[in-house]
């Protein structure tokens, strides 16, 4: 993000700086968060240890190598691609082994999405070399939807769970299996249509239907007590920003246009900043406390400001330009600075926590 904001140059054949920015935020940052979360989650789901120690360091080094080598442009692009794709394969195998051993076959729905993300990354690099026409565009659009799919899948499990146990009053949120199934089937149909079939009318139908059904589910997850807990309202707002993304996605496919001619990019940023960005920051803030033996009900007060910074970022980057194009560059730069500041706050607060042994003395 810093390189992109301060107009860094990137000399890579067939890749614009914007495409590099999108790739690194999705397949770089996004995949790192997915790896950290799922390696921990799969261990909890199966009761079988996932990789740790030297294998985990090796996975991390592959990820780092890909990020650094990509900065050197075309010269090191083959090595960056190799490291990036090896990282993905290593992660998939590391997730699949304990699931297979525990015979929890339903968990392969999550592993399947990670595998599709690996395929998307491969498509991106093939697009870099001109092997696949528009490969980079398909890879970026596909990754955004796949990350949203992961959030819908995992969020269905954890968001109501966190709310019920995180508010001061006793609450039992309504859940409907037919609703969960309908949302996932609609999302699958939207993904197939956007990537393969590409009929705008179907995109509008699926996306607007998702907005309605997912909105109904989110209303059933609501309790006023969440506004007292930053680790809860941040998750809930993020879920609604994703839902708003479905609405704008559908309206654009139906032919409605905002003032800004690049309005499709603005809707995309509702998904990426508001959905992926805020959701991952909030999850990392909570999980980092819980998995280090600390009280998840007592995060730093600064995290509330960090979450608010990301919300302000998505408003300036995605919503304000839909209403006016005046000072557009200023809105974008301010949004980027707010994003960087919010994540810097997280690093300052949580680095000491993550570098120390668990507070309860357990392994980890």
UniProtKB/TrEMBL annotation:
Keywords: Membrane, Transmembrane, Transmembrane helix. Pfam families: NnrS. The chain crosses the membrane at residues 26-44, 56-73, 79-96, 108-132, 138-155, 176-196, 231-251, 263-281, 302-322, 328-355. This is NnrS protein. The lineage of its organism: unclassified sequences, metagenomes, ecological metagenomes.
């Amino acid at each position: 993000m810093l390189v992109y904001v301060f107009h860094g140059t990137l000399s890579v054949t067939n890749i614009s700086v914007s495409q590099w920015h999108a790739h690194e935020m999705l397949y770089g940052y996004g995949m790192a968060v997915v790896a950290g979360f799922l390696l921990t989650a799969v261990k909890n789901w199966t009761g079988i240890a996932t990789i740790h120690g030297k294998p985990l360091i090796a996975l991390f080094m592959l990820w780092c190598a890909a990020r650094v080598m990509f900065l050197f442009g075309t010269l090191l692009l083959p090595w960056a691609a190799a490291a990036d794709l090896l990282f993905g394969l290593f992660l998939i195998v590391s997730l699949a082994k304990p699931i297979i051993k525990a015979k929890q076959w339903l968990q392969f729905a999550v592993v399947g999405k990670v595998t599709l993300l690996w395929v998307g990354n491969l498509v991106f690099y093939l697009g870099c070399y001109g092997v696949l026409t528009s490969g980079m565009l398909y890879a970026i659009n596909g990754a955004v939807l796949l990350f949203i799919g992961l959030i819908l899948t995992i969020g269905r499990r954890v968001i109501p769970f966190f709310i019920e146990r995180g508010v001061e009053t006793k609450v039992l949120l309504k859940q409907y299996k037919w609703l969960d199934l309908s949302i996932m089937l609609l999302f699958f149909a939207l993904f197939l249509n956007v990537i393969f079939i590409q009929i705008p009318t179907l995109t509008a139908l699926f996306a607007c239907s998702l907005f309605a059904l997912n909105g109904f589910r989110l209303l059933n997850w609501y309790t006023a007590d969440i506004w007292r807990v930053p680790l809860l309202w941040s998750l809930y707002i993020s879920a609604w920003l994703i839902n708003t993304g479905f609405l704008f996605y559908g309206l654009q496919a139906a032919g409605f246009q905002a003032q800004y001619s690049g309005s499709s990019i603005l809707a995309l940023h509702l998904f990426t900043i508001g959905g992926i960005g805020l959701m991952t920051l909030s999850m990392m803030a909570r999980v980092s406390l819980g998995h280090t033996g600390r009280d998840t009900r007592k995060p730093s007060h600064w995290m509330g400001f960090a979450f608010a910074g990301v919300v302000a970022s998505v408003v300036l980057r995605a919503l304000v330009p839909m209403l006016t194009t005046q000072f557009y560059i200023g809105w974008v730069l301010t949004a980027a600075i707010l994003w960087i500041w919010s994540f810097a706050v997280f690093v300052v607060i949580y680095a000491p926590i993550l570098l120390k042994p668990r507070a309860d003395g357990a392994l980890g």
